[in-house]
Amino acid sequence: MLVLKGIPASPGIAIGKAVLLPGENLTVSKHYISLEAVNGELQKFERALQKTMQELDECALKVRSTLGTEYASLMDTHKLILQDPALKDAVAHKICTDYLTARSAISLTLQELAANFDKIEDPFFKERRNDLFDAGKRLLANLEGNKKDFLASIKRPSLLVAHDLFPSDTISLPENQILGFCTDVGGKTSHTALLAQSLNIPAVVGLSTASKDVANGDMLIIDGENGLLVINPDRYTLANYRQIKRELKKTESLLKTINHLPVVTQDGRRVHLYVNYDPRTDNKYNKTLITDGLGLLRTEFLFMNTPVPPSEEAQYKIYLAVAKRFDMRPATIRLADLGADKMPDFPLDELNDDDNPFMGCRGVRLLLKNPELLHCQLRAIVRTACEVPAQVKIMIPMVSSVEEVRHVRAAFSQVLEEFAKQGQKPLNKIALGAMIEVPAAAIALDGMINELDFISIGTNDLIQYLVAVDRVNPEVAHMYDPCHPAVGRTIHNIIQTAHKRGKFVSICGEIASDAKMLPLLLGWQVDGLSVTPRMYLRVKNNIRNLNFEHCCDLAQAALLMGSSAEIRELVEDNNHENS
Amino acid sequence: MVQKDLKILNRLGLHARPAALIAQTAAGFACNIELTKDNVTINAKSIMGVMMLAAEFGSCVRVTANGTDEVQAAQALEQLFNDKFNEEF
After folding, report:
1. Which of A53, A328, A364, A523 has its CA 20 to 30 A from that of A376?
2. Secondary structure (3-state) at A461
3. Confidence bin at B63 (pLDDT 50/70/90)
């Protein structure tokens, strides 16, 4: 038995036999051919090229409808790279005069071209070598039989193990035959992770060596809850996981029965429960959820993997689809929170290599320094609200001062005027609110709350800034603590200040789906919560099992406590009593 | 032979999309077309070559066209550069 630790990309547990995606790696060894074989190898290369071009065309079409234009334009770049004389001529030359096999010739050419890219000093241009390798790997995959045929030939339900998966690969996956997948590379928001979530199957990514450690037919457990891959588990582990899987399934089917019921506590306190929505991971399950609306649309993805910022038209199309999806219910669109760990590929003012990016130019700071980005995004949102009678809300990320709110509001008013001049106006008033995630904004909220229509507390960043802990640093990660007295008191103060002015407060971030913390949040009188689709019914069920008055007592008690340990004991004891 | 010195007027420089436009346009002509910047010369019909120039905003690129339709080719490329590769923001 071997256990590998990776990154949980899509929750759930899958148990089954492994299927290994065949090699797509570049070879380093040179294989030679005889003079008579030259024409055969040239033809092989030509056929692979044709096939790959065709594949890219087909997949650009499919990708455009499922994942949006950002991936599709990537395919066009790949096509041009494959048609590039620098690639075609070099490969042909290596086959004809060096007598190399098509495979060796392609691998070698790719490596030579990549070396040229490495010489470029500008990091933006340097990054383009990845496009070259992606295109090259496709070509190699088509050279050696057809990977698509391989995937389509999977007849038995299996777990797919690969070094990496392209969006195009996953599109040819046979439906219901893949129970889960794991890859060597990728992170929580990689396209592989997003695809697993949209297919609603468990996935673990970033396993580094999975494709080397697993052999075809091995028994595997993919634990998408904890980010583990178990290879050839022993009897005890297998039985244990089968049990967990059964329980997960049981809870899920029980939860479905409360889908149509209102979100109220046992004693009748209504809580607005919203969903964090990502159009890229929407699936059948998510569509069946009955929600109070969209609590957080992160728009950064529109700005990633693209050499230029998205146009007003491109953004409008996405926002319109989102607004229609949530029809008359609130649809909260957060302005792009770029910077820090979300760097776009296109160059921007004030966005250079930053030693301390989380304290640097991100969120509203970056938008105000690049007013054309802000203007374009606001126009796309307002245009959406002019088209459909949705309850569109705009949320400003990373606000730390009232001046920032005023600047954004001025830009927003200007956009409204531009539309008014053409005789257009939003069918419903658009609310403008802020994400409260910087301690300064939380403490001095009374100074800016009058200028805001609503607020949402972004707890992930707020806690990180409050306790001054970088969650990625293993030395201090354990000090990232939602139970810290400062966290509770800050959340409570924010809600009090907002309620004095009659403003709506919601909470997003992991704390909102933490069953132990939920009674405290309710007790501090939060109006709404926003959680992932996957957690939605679990949180709803928890709220429906709580007593609001009891939550108030508990929350009051927590405010009087001076240490994390006391608060943790309080919520854990309470959680124990409830279950 | 026709030679022209062209300046990069779009703010993002010759990234993937303008590079693609140049390579596609160049491929439509029969003549040889080369781009030169900082003593590096590449084939304008190669998207990777154009990207490898890493030509940023404000820099100068020399176009050299040599063949039957050299005048039209140089003109077409000049047009692309002047139109900022249809990127206006």
Report:
1. A328
2. helix
3. very high
How large is the ipTM?
Answer: 0.79
Question: How far, in Å, CA of A215 to CA of A227, rounded?
Answer: 20
- In this prediction the pTM is 0.66
What span, in angstroms and rounded, lies between the C-alpha atoms of A274 and A295?
A: 5
Answer positive or negative: Cα dihedral of A180, A183, A187, A190: negative
The Cβ-side half-sphere exposure at A145, using a 13 Å CA radius, reads 11
pLDDT band at B86 (very low <50, low <70, confident <90, very high): confident
Domain regions of chain B by residue span: 2-86
**Nearest to residue A419, comparing CAs of A384, A447, A467, A471?**
A384
Pairing type for strands A454-458 and A504-508 reads parallel
Claim to verify: residue A494 and residue A552 sit in the same structural domain: yes
Over the range A395-424, which residues count as b (16 or more CB within 10 Å of their CB) and which as e? bbbbbbebebbebbeebbeebbeebeeeee
Does A224 map to a domain?
yes
For residue A520, give every residue at least 6 positions away whose Cβ sits within 8 Å of its Cβ, in sequence order, or none.
A488, A551, A554, A555, A558, A571
**The pLDDT value given to residue A374:** 96
| Number of CB atoms found within 10 A of residue A563's CB | 11
Domain B2-86: which CATH number of 3.30.1490.20, 3.30.70.20, 3.20.20.70, 3.30.1340.10: 3.30.1340.10
Q: How many domains does the structure of chain A reveal? A: 3
Closest Cβ–Cβ partner in A84, A85, A347 for B12: A347
For A286, residues 6+ apart whose C-beta sits below 8 A from its C-beta are A275, A277, A533
Q: Which range marks the domain in which residue A131 is found? A: 35-143
pLDDT at B56 over 80: yes
> Could you tell me the two tokens for A224?
């998408």
Same domain, A244 and A378: no
- The nearest alpha carbon in chain B to A310 belongs to B89
pLDDT of residue A268: 95
CATH number of the domain where residue A182 is located: 3.50.30.10
For residue A560, how many other CB atoms are within 10 A of its CB?
9
Using the beta-carbon criterion (under 8 Å), do A120 and B52 form an inter-chain contact?
A: yes
Q: Do B56 and A122 touch (CB under 8 A)?
A: yes
- Measured between CA atoms, the residue of chain B closest to residue A375 is B89
Helix axis angle for A102-118 and A85-98, nearest 10°, is: 130
What was the pLDDT predicted at A80?
84
Low-confidence ranges of chain A (pLDDT < 50): none
Contact A251, A37 (CB under 8 A): no
Q: Which residue, among B52, B86, B87, would best test binding to A if mutated, counting the most A CBs under 10 Å from its CB?
A: B52
